[in-house]
Design goal:
The protein is α+β, with helices and mostly antiparallel strands. Helix content is 39%, strand content 25%. It has a seven-stranded antiparallel beta sheet.
């Protein structure tokens, strides 16, 4: 094998391995963002510093569904504060109220760095779950990639990377000898 062919084949192998590694990293990231939802986990991005340092601003939090009856004081829960706001705070008190439908659980919550408890009690039906995994800084990336233009950019990049892996299989290297034979065959006949 000539020196040029050897170098070209080494470059092709390097290109294949590096582009495969990049695609594998992107797929792993996609699994973290999407596939875990199939198992009931939900993810949220931390947007305030009320639970620092355990849940820093920009962190990605995965929550697991929880039965409200199993929540104890000191547990951290993620809940619907209103129609548009989701909060992750620590339970500081469990309030059992007797209503027309029997006993109703409500939770008094507080951010770890806040001086006072939250203004209103959390109804047990508003509890989404308990945080089980926190990944610092990944929330910024997840938030960007889930909305335009980040969504479009990620689709374009993935398509480009996949094509970089597939295209080399369709382009075969032809050495000088092979090209000379093809030229000779085409012009002689």
């Amino acid at each position: 094998m000539s020196g040029g062919k050897y170098i070209l084949r080494r470059l092709q192998r390097f290109w294949y391995l590096s582009s495969s590694a990049i695609v594998a990293i992107i797929l792993a990231f996609a699994v973290m963002l999407v596939a875990l939802r199939l198992f009931g986990f939900q993810m949220f991005t931390v947007t305030s510093g009320s639970m620092e340092p355990n849940y820093p601003v920009g962190a990605l939090i995965y929550t697991s569904p929880v039965d409200a009856a199993t929540i104890k004081e000191g547990d951290v829960i993620t809940f619907m504060n209103n129609e548009t706001t989701i909060v992750t705070h620590r339970v500081v008190e469990i309030v059992k109220e007797t209503g027309t439908n029997g006993e109703v659980l409500r939770f008094r919550t507080k951010g770890d760095v806040n001086n006072t408890s939250d203004g209103k009690l959390v109804h047990y039906k508003n509890v989404i779950g308990k945080p089980i995994v926190t990944i610092p800084m990944l929330g910024y990336v997840a938030y960007y990639l889930q909305r335009p233009p980040g969504l479009y950019i990620s689709l374009i990049v993935c398509t480009f990377l996949i094509s970089l892996i597939i295209i080399p299989y369709f382009i075969k290297f032809k050495g000088k000898e092979q090209l000379a034979k093809e030229v000779e065959t085409n012009y002689v006949n």
